[in-house]
Amino acid sequence: MTAEKNSAAVNGRPVWAEISLSALTHNLHAIRDFVNPKSEKRAAPRKVLAIVKGNGYGHGGPQVAKALEKAGSDWFGVTSAAEGEQLRKAGVRKPILALTSFWPGEEAQLLKHKIAPAVIRCEQLAALESAAARRKLTQRSVAFHLKIDTGMNRLGIAPTDIDCFARQYEKCQHLKLEGVFTHFASSEVFQGPVASQTREQEENFHRAVARLRTLGIDPGLIHLANSAAIATRPETWADMVRPGAILYGYHPGYDPIERRAEAEKQLPLRPVMSLRTRIINIRQVPAGSGVGYNAKFVAERPSKIAVVAAGYGDGIHRSLGNKGNVLIRGVLAPIVGIISMDVTMVDVTSVPDVVLGDIATIYGPDGQDSSNVLPANLVARSIGTVTSDLLCAVSARVPRLYLK
Ligand SMILES: Cc1ncc(COP(=O)(O)O)c(C=O)c1O
Q1: Considering the domain boundaries, does residue 289 fall inside one?
Q2: Is residue 244 lining ligand 1, measured as CB closer than 6 Å?
Q3: 8 falls in which pLDDT band (50, 70, 90)?
Q4: Which CATH number fits the domain that encloses residue 65?
Q5: Could you tell me the pTM of the whole model?
Q6: Among 90, 121, 125, 158, which has the highest number of CB atoms less than 10 A from its own CB?
Q7: How many folded domains does the chain comprise?
Q8: Which residues contact 275 (CB under 8 A, 6 or more apart)?
């Protein structure tokens, strides 16, 4: 038997992430069509702001943004001036929003690369205005979005600060309010104590926007919806939506979980990343023998244990030790023992014909056969985390292979 070859070529240590650009483009188009139903008459189609922060949820921010720009994304969301600059350097021309606002010192970089910041405190207007004046920019040429904290108690101005914002904004000749937004704390939750939170956040938001209008300020683009709201709450779509997780192929963890099947049916997505490695060692382990650090797995029967070339230093979540699985030759093989930094042990006793060099898929589609998938959202749920945590964790030393 020879080792499986169902993969893109990678040189050197065999751990890599296959990024399917066709799956990514499919997801963008699916989202755009979903939020622009043919039955609805709107003067302008709803825009899509693709969230590419966190290195494009681990997929490679600049590469993903380039592909999405070509596929028609209207806007991009990053976290900082530095992430925005990376996109500009890769040639992205569409507007970019720095969602997490800016820290003193980031203003020049934002202005230089035409990255619109989120303003989350009124006094930031003066800092932005001074930076624009220093660069001798023209009037109303520096775009920003106002973030309103409608109940998450994280980032954004309080709805009660709208009047203060309006007074400060009037003094800033260089600045232009291009959009107003908020972020939902629990849009995936439909039961329990926070079931009504999204509705309350929406109401707070619309009241704040109405106050802005009363004060004579045009709010520009109105946007609220993250992945869960896009998939399940059409009343939140407004002028633009901000997909993160769904862009990369995964619905969030709805509560109750039964909501998932319905959401997946209405908005079918394709996982974009497949994290893969190869078996670099196989050994027969007698019953009663311990495997890995602290012998946290003890073979109950004579076992065939494979070592794959990926560990927590590559982004495999350490809590998958003795808990998760990988896909080898289309078979789910259990991870055994503690996950090391560079390698992980897998019980391959039940995998027919397994040999050194076989590919192990850690999350995502198992090669070209898209019917065989180890979905990252199920892996995440099994260890009590979210899909984005697993995807963002794929480390810098893992080469990303972009497949058309
Ligand atoms: C302001 C904002 N909008 C949208 C998103 C995308 O969220 P999701 O991945 O749930 O779509 C995020 C992600 O954290 C965010 O911070």
Answers
A1: yes
A2: yes
A3: low
A4: 3.20.20.10
A5: 0.95
A6: 125
A7: 2
A8: 15, 16, 17, 310, 315, 316, 361, 362, 363, 364, 394, 398
